[in-house]
Amino acid sequence: MALEYFEFDIFKQFPEIFACVFTRNGGVSSGAYESLNVSYKCDDKNENVNRNRELICKEIGIDRKNLIAVSQVHGRKILDIAKPLDDEFLTQDIEGYDGMITATKGLYLMVQVGDCQAVMIYDPVEKIVAGVHSGWKGSAQNIIGEAILKMVEMGSDPRNIYVGISPSLGTCCSEFSDPENELPCDLREYILPNKHVDFWKMSVDQCIQAGVPEAQIALPAQCTVCNNDTFFSYRAGKRFAGDFGVVIGMK
What is the pLDDT of residue 250? Predict the structure, then answer.
């Protein structure tokens, strides 16, 4: 089966970048991880994950060392990447980060998600890209705002930034046990009836608060739980069953 992916429409106006969401289909993994699982943090065989990442690189047309991924620890640290991976990180992820940023052409940042949001960010003026993993803990810490701030420190004007947010946990399936206590006070406005939380609106608002124009933010609004046949979802199976990859890079 060929790899399945879709591109962010908001980035199609910039031919110098590649930004897409790979589905869970077209890889070599089996069982709960069928089939394009890109995560080492599960019981899938590492050789399957390695092969799946190689398939993504082949689809993009890049060397394996140019596909960068971090361990995603549900924090807010952003790693500045300037060169291809060292050999040790070809079979494991760089520890301690949830976001990546680069101004180097030819490097492609891959965020791994299975209900969390992968937030792809591009400044076409300064030529800077970022990829951010934002689960509910990352949202509570505003990792999106942190990434945009780092881009500003590198010379970006937030008014020039474009953002694409991947399919993720939708409002239909985002029930929490106790959101009043789990979320910081300033985020309780996003709590919906029946203990659901609107993380989609939260992320859009965090982009706007960081200075990004609303018209330059794309949110497909596809729920990964409801579309578990297309995307991996933790909640759909009530256990970790792999991640799909979301990639951005400058050609």
Answer: 98
